[in-house]
From TrEMBL:
Signal peptide: none annotated. Residues 4-130 form the Glyoxalase/fosfomycin resistance/dioxygenase domain. InterPro entries: Glyas_Bleomycin-R_OHBP_Dase, Glyas_Fos-R_dOase_dom, PhnB-like. It comes from the Bacteria. This is VOC family protein. Pfam families: Glyoxalase (PF00903).
Length: 137
């Protein structure tokens, strides 16, 4: 996989239920990570979904998560476009172009789960997530 483009939805605490519903609709394989897996397991909201990913046999990919603990979920502003893959140079180039003239929300840097990740809003107000994973062998 070089680069993947897909929607990323944000939820107010019901990401698991929503993504399970979408799995019923589209089929496929669903994977979850919680905030507890990468932070204090007893923190408020630790059982919420930090990242969920539905992949179907037809090639559809839908990602989603609960708003991070302590942040507000704003209905109507609950999506981002996700670019992910293992093409480090290509994805860093996309990041530079997307964030130019926009707002960097999370700098593109290595995260606790091991991937390089960043969030920005481009100059047109579209939110983007860029995730650079390690190449799989």
């Amino acid at each position: 996989m070089a680069v993947r483009l897909n929607p990323y939805l944000s939820f107010a605490g019901d990401a698991r239920q929503a993504l399970e519903f979408y799995q019923e609709v589209f089929g496929g394989t669903l994977r979850f990570s919680t905030y507890a897996e990468f932070g204090p397991p007893d923190a408020p909201g630790a059982d919420r979904i930090m990242h969920g990913m539905l992949e179907t046999p037809d090639g559809l990919v839908l990602m989603g998560a609960d708003a991070p603990p302590g942040t507000d979920h704003i209905p109507g502003n609950n999506f981002a476009v996700s670019l992910s893959g293992d093409d480090d140079a290509g994805l860093r180039g996309c990041w530079q172009r997307l964030s130019a003239g926009g707002e960097v929300v999370i700098p593109l840097e290595k995260q606790v789960w091991g991937d390089v990740f960043g969030m920005c809003t481009d100059r047109f107000g579209v939110p983007w997530m860029v995730a650079i994973g390690r190449p799989r062998s």
